[in-house]
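Internal tracking record. Fields below are filled automatically when a chain is submitted to the structure queue. Please do not edit lines marked as system-generated. If the sequence contains nonstandard residues, flag them in the REMARKS field before resubmitting.
Queue: standard
Priority: normal
Entity type: single polypeptide chain
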Amino acid sequence: MEDLGIGRPSTYSQTISILKKRKYVELAEKKFLPTDQGRLTIEKLDEFFESIISVDYTARMEKVLDQISEGDEDQTKIIKEFYNEFIPMVAEANINMEKIAPKLTGEQCPKCGSDMVVRSSRYGTFEACSNFPECKYIKPDDKKKEEPTKTGVTCTKCGVGEIVERTAKSGRNKGKTFYACDNFPKCKNMLFGKPTGEKCPKCGHLLIEDQKGQIICQETKQCGYKKDEKTN
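SYSTEM-GENERATED OUTPUT FOLLOWS
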């Protein structure tokens, strides 16, 4: 880009990030290679927007933008000229660009019975009803973060959040249950045992049941309170 005289060093990283995020390119052996989506996108841009999707046009526009910033060119005039050229291109593309049929999933929409298909957006792929926009059903993503299980116990550290049960998704504790305040990240209170709902008579924080079944204060080091079973 620098050799061709387009873009600015401050924009190179962002440009590459967008290309990767939208899956137009992929990294292989330290080289960026176009994906099928990338090749298709370039093909259609060349077909319907050839006059503005070019190195020469971009380089000229860079100079014009510099002239605008320096007060040597009229911003309104440039925008109007671009608009008058660009909008007819968009209209033609909307009419004549071949529409690619979405891939069928083999399932039926639970709302209207139409076929479910795989669609794409800037955020990735998703499954939705083929009868859109009449039916706007989108299949829930099972990979999305599951809702934590509420315990009904108020966090004693912030006094606002509720202690909830979660499952570790990664790390050495992956798959294990832990308890934490749902007011995260404002409150980072984490418990290494199930809260009993009682408060420690010594420091006022929550009592938890540890792995051995013993009732102790969540502040194991600072407080160290342990409930004597004989006094239950």
